[in-house]
Amino acid sequence: MNELNLDDDSFIISDDVWGNAKRNLIDRFKLSSKFDICNNLIKDFEAINTKWKYKSDFEVFIRESKLEDFISANGETIFVSTIHKAKGKEFDHVFLLLENFDAREDEKKRLLYVAMTRAKQNLTIHLNGNYLDKLKTEKLERVENNNTFQPPSGLALHLSHKDLNLGYFEYVQKRVDTLTSGDSITVSDEGCKNEKGEFVLKFSKKFLERLGKIQESGFELKEAKVNFIVHWIDNDKKIEVKIVLPELHFEKIRM
Q1: Pairing between strand 191-193 and 119-127?
Q2: What is the DSSP string of the chain?
Q3: Can you say whether the dihedral through the CA atoms of 151, 155, 161, 166 is positive or negative?
Q4: What does the pLDDT look like over 188-200, one tens digit per residue?
Q5: Can you tell me the distance from the alpha carbon of 212 to that of 61, in angstroms, rounded to the nearest whole number?
Q6: 212, 220 Cβ separation under 8 angstroms
Q7: Contact, 58 vs 45, CB < 8 A?
Q8: pTM for this structure?
Q9: Residue 222: how many CA atoms within 13 Å on its side-chain side?
Q10: Phi/psi zone of residue 238: left (φ > 0), alpha (ψ -120 to 50 degrees), beta?
Q11: What are the backbone dihedrals phi and psi of residue 244, each rounded to the nearest 5 degrees, phi first?
């Protein structure tokens, strides 16, 4: 939208403006780990609007789109979500993890129904209860696994805005503007830094407590990357800032 650079009284996007915006987008973000998602969104809009491209239509198309709609069919992206956040969405394959889930209450039964109906092709349920033992349906396969598994050798965390000091971003916008999804950033005790050693984000107090517990359990924070850069509105100060949502990678410490 920024590359289109349209005036308020411009309604139709000409082919020249559209093509130039696409070229600028490629030049700026071709190395971004999220570039394919953005490119697929543009291709879908072009397929629907073959003759005329209206600015208002493009704005609505972006706002009403979901991220998973533009993941390549041959991709290996895994969405990790709570049941509540998955409501209203659908996925080809769903892996449902129900550890010590209590399905006796009506509210929990409805929640379980929501979770199971997110799958379009395959549903795999991992549970340690017997409340689905009487369930019968076509192509249902039951597997009992009594193996004892070793702890993982690594962990990956995708941080949300709740894990970050949001107020700090107001002071580092120029540093954030130089980053794209997939960029490596250096981890420290307080947050993450760019290649110049400047902080681009700081962890929240709550996440620092969580980080300490992870490290106490034998994991060492090894690396971080930019996952998403999103726009956040500070209602108190009436300003909009870009914030960096990182993904953190841990390795098990060998004793």
Answers
A1: unpaired
A2: -TTT---TT--B--HHHHHHHHHHHHHHHTT-TTHHHHHHHHHHHHHH-SS--BHHHHHHHHHT--GGGGS-TT--------HHHHTT--EEEEEEEESS----SHHHHHHHHHHHTTEEEEEEEEESSSTTTT---TT-------PPPPPPSEEEEE--GGGB-GGGGGG-HHHHTT--TT-EEEE-SSEEE-TTS-EEEEB-HHHHHHHHHHHHTTEEEEEEEEEEEEEEEETTTTEEEEEEEEEEEEEEPP-
A3: positive
A4: 989 999 999 999 9
A5: 42
A6: no
A7: yes
A8: 0.76
A9: 11
A10: left
A11: -100, 120
73-120 residue pLDDT tens? 565 677 888 888 888 888 889 999 999 998 889 999 999 999 999 999
- Which residue is listed with tokens 């030049």? 27
